[in-house]
User: Fold Malate dehydrogenase from Eleusine coracana subsp. coracana.
Amino acid sequence: MIARGIMLGVDQPVILHMLDIPPAAEALNGVKMELVDAAFPLLKGVVATTDVVEACTGVNVAVMVGGFPRKEGMERKDVMSKNVSIYKAQASALEAHAAPNCKVLVVANPANTNALILKEFAPSIPEKNITCLTRLDHNRALGQISERLNVQVSDVKNVIIWGNHSSTQYPDVNHATVKTASGEKPVRELVADDEWLNGEFIKTVQQRGAAIIKARKLSSALSAASSACDHIRDWVLGTPEGTFVSMGVYSDGSYGVPAGLIYSFPVTCSGGEWKIVQGLPIDELSRQKMDATAQELSEEKTLAYSCLE
Ligand SMILES: NC(=O)c1ccc[n+]([C@@H]2O[C@H](COP(=O)([O-])OP(=O)(O)OC[C@H]3O[C@@H](n4cnc5c(N)ncnc54)[C@H](O)[C@@H]3O)[C@@H](O)[C@H]2O)c1
Assistant:
């Protein structure tokens, strides 16, 4: 997708740097061969390496997919300490060798807290340059509304994912609209079923990752890659006028979310910078759900910091 221009635009040549661990080196080389064989006109070069310094040198955009997700029977603390050691090494390499103003997107789970660890170990990278992926959840919410109303997904906009990329996230449709023949209409009005919107809809989006794993016996791949491209494209090239998207970003205390968490907010992007959408009214139910996911992130942060000691 990146080599086809879906992430950075069809007029932007790219050099791909791909990092994996030594046991995966041969497979990584196979991916490199396929990239060369595809003869993508925009692909100016491919670096396939197991050396984190070589991988990070000169990069303008870093998409971090290597991580250690929790496996059955593992304690949360064990998972966190594995991610702390991975992100410590990668953060230091990015800080020392990436291009100035490199934009970082953390995809690997626990995505928000991995991003926070990365920020901790790369103090000279501005915090506004470190983000995590919740665009997949955002796109899932758009998809659910589009299916329910039988409208084209591109006519639905301004859903919000608040909080953690986990099952405590809060998919919020209170500000979402649909383009209709008679103008833009609120999603709540068109769906006209608050019980579904406040119940099954939220649950489906929260649990979608698990549902995909159950069905495929593998986690989401196409939709995750596509939404990572959406995240970077909008960040670099800007969001359309009147549209906001969800990004996990460093909280400045907006909407009463504790500062210092990587929390998913509604944002607009322009000139390569994101900005949290301000002034949206928050109802009682939303407040509770936004606080619950913030609470989970605060607990993850405490756990992560205890692994740093
Ligand atoms: N935020 C999201 O929306 C979202 C969506 C999908 C997947 N994920 C997460 O993204 C991550 C990747 O998912 P996947 O399905 O591609 O997993 P995967 O296991 O297929 O791929 C992960 C790759 O990372 C490599 N890796 C492991 N440790 C590494 C290290 N220290 N340095 C460099 N590379 C390393 C592995 O060898 C493997 O090739 C997982 O943590 C998954 O939970 C997040």
Remarks:
- The mean pLDDT is 95.
- The chain has ten helices and 13 strands.
